Amino acid sequence: MNALVSSIRGGSLGSVLLISPAMALLVLLFFYPLVMLFLTTLEPGNIQNYANVVGSDTYMRVFLNTLRLAAIVTVIDLLIAYPLAFYICRLTSSGRAIAFFLLLIPLWTSQLVRTYAWMVLLGRNGPINGALMSLDIIDTPLRLSNSEFAVVIGMVHILLPYMVLPIYSSASKIDRSLVEASRGLGAGPVSILTRVLIPLTIHGVLAGVSLVLVLSLGVFIMPALLGGGRVPVIPLLIEQQAGSFLNWAMAGTLSVILLLMVLVVFWLIKLATKLLVRGRLNA
Amino acid sequence: MLNSRRRSFLLRRAGVGIHHVLAWLVFLFLLAPLLIVVPISFSGGAYLRFPPESYSTQWYEAYFAQDSWINATILSLQIGIVATIISVSVGFLFALGITRGLRSWAPTLEKLAIAPMVVPSIVYSVSMYSLFSSLGLVGNWFGIALAHAILCLPFVVIVLAASLREYDMDQEIAALGLGASRLTAIRRITIPQIRPSLLSAAFLAFITSFDELVVAMFLSGTFGTLPKKMFDNIRLQIDPTIAAVSVMEIVMVILVMAVLLRINRANASRLT
Q1: With an 8 Å Cβ cutoff, are B149 and A25 in contact?
Q2: How far is A216 from chain B (nearest CA, A)?
Q3: pLDDT tens-digit readout, B162-194
Q4: Residues on chain B touching A115 (C-beta within 8 angstroms)
Q5: What is the b/e burial string over B196-228, where b = at least 16 CB atoms within 10 angstroms of the residue's CB?
Q6: Long-range pairs of B235-242 with CB within 8 A, sequence gap ≥ 24
């Protein structure tokens, strides 16, 4: 019997065979092209691009704008998702099924469809302007689309489920009697939130934050369509260099920098997780 | 006069009420954009206007009458199906491998397989363009399917590894004890039981490929997938054909979700 168990659990050789097709695909079609891209940007004719990027005010402004946009979207999503995740926890099982349905339909609907829908909603003749005008709040249509505001709304909408789901999964594990107990011991709502709920959900929060932050750094569709050319971000810059100027070397350099930014963000959040979790254990 | 106990009770009730209202406002925010395209897709006018002045099915007819839309849809379906088959088959084997052995390596391997989700698709597309242009594969639909399969793999691995970890392995052991080969045990005992997760994984993979824009923009050459056609259409002119396409996509997603939720009722949260 032990041999049987180990043939399932241990079987290293079998397991190596099982993972090899996926690893082969990943190495050949993912890691190899990325490493080659990186090495290409270091070639003598191309390495100057790094200096050009770092020395250029225009590029630096786009970088800062990309980071700022990602931070804004992440904070808004966190503020919306946190109470929503707890709300879903409280629902009955059928209510929860409906809530998941409502959360997953947008997640699974094409990003292009949702971006188009926001263009309609925020358009000059769109329903938001229409409603505001018929209520006599404004006389002339507001310029809502082709702006940073529109890009932020679109990104918040598209990335929200990625924040709700990890927070929900850690919030759903909290024993409700803990909240009752702290209330019984005289804790007010603020200290229940900061001393009970947030520490217990910090893993979910950090998972959601890193997912949304990283995804929002790489978003292309919303800035391209909802920004109307007014919201410069790195992915647009890369597409412009490759698509319009056919400057693949510069597109490669910018891609490597964007990838490095993503990795640094990840590393910082991992560091924050370690510090916060250790701080909690010591407290 | 309210005593303090009664006041805190009322405050808590008010808090719960506000929480309730805010949560449903968020759901409205999530769904409103999807609902708004339905009336527009049935608009009778030539321009985008909300609410439409008259209603017709002209934009659906326009979609079905144009070869460029139909060809783009068929191409996307074809790429999506091939990318799904590739990613689910290698992803299933991979998930089996990391949940049945390789104890200490499993977390690292899983991170490697999830990495494509984290690398921005535009970065991945630029790197694949360099590779494919040196191999002469730009403009080849199978090349796009392979690139999509890489992007689908993280979702497949996350869903299937979670499901295989929860799965009671004693049943496989029992089958082996009764003389089944490993392959038979997996085929006849394991696969039927994780079928809902396999279906979820396949659906997620298909959606990921079917909706993918950036890779197709870089690798498709002269022809275009449905997202590429939609993107060009939205960028150049806002004509309501795109609303008709959108409604058909939304209906497709809702139908499949309803089926999956029925199969997988107990594990709604797994569908992510």
Answers
A1: yes
A2: 9
A3: 988 887 777 878 888 888 877 788 888 888 888
A4: 234
A5: bbbbbbbbbbbbbbbbbbbbbbbbbeeebbbbb
A6: B235/A224, B235/A225, B238/A116, B238/A119, B238/A120, B238/A123, B238/B48, B239/B48, B239/B59, B240/B40, B240/B41, B240/B43, B240/B48, B240/B59, B241/B59, B241/B62, B241/B63, B241/B66, B241/B69, B242/A116
Tell me the C-alpha distance between B272 and B264, whole Å: 12
A110: which chain B residues are within 8 Å (Cβ-Cβ)? 210-211, 227, 230, 246, 249
Residue A280 confidence (pLDDT): 59
DSSP, collapsed to helix, strand or coil, labels residue B97 as: helix
B268–A224 CB contact, under 8 Å? no
A221 vs B contacts (CB less than 8 Å):
213, 231
Q: Do A110 and B246 touch (CB under 8 A)?
A: yes
Which among B99, B271, B264 has a CA at the least distance from the CA of B195? B264
Size of interface A-B (CB pairs under 8 A): 280
Closest partner residue to B272 (CB to CB) among A10, A104, A252 is A104
Calpha distance A116→B34 (Å, rounded):
10
Q: Which residues pair with B43 in a beta bridge?
A: B55
The predicted model scores a pTM of 0.89
DSSP A28: I
Closest Cα in chain A, distance from residue B68 (Å): 18
Residue B258: pLDDT band with limits 50, 70, 90 = confident
pLDDT at A8 over 60: no
Distance separating alpha carbons of residues B83 and B131, to the nearest angstrom: 19
Whether residue B51 has a cis bond before it, omega within 30° of 0: yes
Nearest one of A60, A49, A44 to A253, comparing CA atoms: A49
CB-closest option in A26, A189, A225 to B112: A26
User: Are B121 and B215 in contact, with CB atoms under 8 Å apart?
Assistant: yes
Closest CA to B19 of A131, A88, A121, A27: A88
Alpha-carbon torsion (B154, B159, B165, B171), positive or negative: negative
Q: Where are the beta strands (DSSP E) in chain A?
A: none
From A25, which residue of chain B is nearest by alpha-carbon distance?
B150
Instruction: Say whether B55 sits in a helix, a strand or coil.
Output: strand
The 3-state DSSP class for residue B43 equals strand
A7–B122 C-beta distance less than 8 A: no
Q: Who's near B45: CB < 8 A, 6+ residues apart?
A: B52, B53, B54
- Per-residue pLDDT of B132-151, as tens digits, reads 999 988 889 999 999 999 99
Query: Three-state DSSP class for B3?
Result: coil
